[in-house]
Amino acid sequence: MSDTLVFVPAWNEEDNLPAVLDELGRELPQADVLVVDDGSTDRTSEVARLRGAEVISFDVNRGLPAGIAAGYGYANEHGYAFCGRVDADGQHPVAQLARLLERVRSGACDVAVGSRFASGDGFAAYRYRPTAARRFGTAVLRRSMKVALRRPFLDATSGMYAANAKALPILARPYTSEAPEVQGLLRLQEAGMRIEEIPVDMRPRASGESKLQGKKAVMVVLTIAATLLAVDRWRRG
Asked: What is the pTM of this model?
């Protein structure tokens, strides 16, 4: 068994998943791979097994928060020293996940988060151009995260992660928010984990459509922002 697990939450991703798993095999050949099949109605679990991945299959669609908790929980229960996460839609280059894992392996941080908006190390500022709705949502979320974390955080909803064993029990706890990445960051901060935001490039989704877009995405962001500000008021009280 490897000391590193990379897990991929997936829901009806039979078209995108083969390329993601092939890329993981090329770029991180020593890592074990887990696909968390979130109640897919297509061949997602079959495709994963055919390419040698371990598979957890939910009997019904439980949503991304449950898939993320299951992935980190598997890594924690099986004693992995390091864990990475990429999405099943092809947006996360595995070579850049490898950079995040190296940062964690070096002991520089407990958790490394791949950021579309951070710059430096050859990554230009403003290289990622979101839609107007996403720009609004991102601006609101950044302000709220700065209040809640008491530090700037540019890409709080990023799904590209690397974590060490100390962070796994924290990230594996059940999520109660529709933005599990944001809730995870708050937990990590409260637990005193060292979190670094690392600049990365992300690709457009390979095929299909995001499950969260348009007005729904904006409403989720506004709900998260209100929750974050409430958390800050509770702390001050």
From this structure: 0.85
